[in-house]
Amino acid sequence: MSERASFARRIDVLAEIFAFTTAAFARQGIPATLLAGVDLVLEELFTNIVKYGRGKAPVTIEIAAIPDGVEVTLTEPEADRFDVTKAAPVDITLPAVQRRPGGLGLHLIPRLVDSLQYGYSEGERCSRIVFRKTSAAPRAGAAGRNEDERC
Questions:
Q1: CA distances (Å), 149 to each of 70, 91, 106, 118, in order?
Q2: Domain span at residue 95?
Q3: Residue 29 backbone class (left: φ over 0; alpha: ψ -120 to 50; beta: rest)
Q4: Which of 19, 87, 89, 111 is the most exposed place for a label (fewest CB within 10 A)?
Q5: pLDDT value at position 142?
Q6: How many domains does the chain have?
Q7: CA 136 to CA 114: how far, in whole Å?
Q8: What is the CATH number of the domain that holds 93?
Q9: 72-105 pLDDT tens trace
């Protein structure tokens, strides 16, 4: 069982996204302890799409229960290729004043989830990001494949 909804590319829809995830978790019996982490990852990915994407079509979010967790898929039509699994590294050992602003969200995402995958369909200009989160502790730096695919 999975649930999906589409959201306009506007920051002010974040509350709608969080309402969707909360309801989907409850209906599917997904452990509520995972909700805050999933919402944080969704917020980071969605805001990056809004800030840097050039498309106008809504972004679709699909939530599916998996054993002891959840799989979340973000589908962005009208997208340029940007592989979130290959984001530039951030040197978090430097003091904040010496670091270049930005990039911390993409740095944190693989550390908050069990797996992170990116796919892109060149012909359709459609990207798909899939992440999984379970009750088990995440693996440091977990990232997945980068494949061409259909959206």
A1: 22, 32, 22, 10
A2: 2-148
A3: left
A4: 89
A5: 47
A6: 1
A7: 8
A8: 3.30.565.10
A9: 999 999 999 988 788 666 555 656 666 565 555 5
For residues 82-93, one letter each, b for 16 or more C-beta atoms within 10 angstroms of the residue's C-beta and e for the rest, the string is bebbebeebeee
Its pTM stands at 0.82
Query: Which whole-number Å values give the CA distances from 37 to 5, 54, 62, 132, 136, in the listed order?
Result: 19, 27, 16, 11, 13
Q: How far apart are the first and last CA of the chain?
A: 19
Contact 82, 127 (CB under 8 A): yes
Tokens coding 87: 């984001």
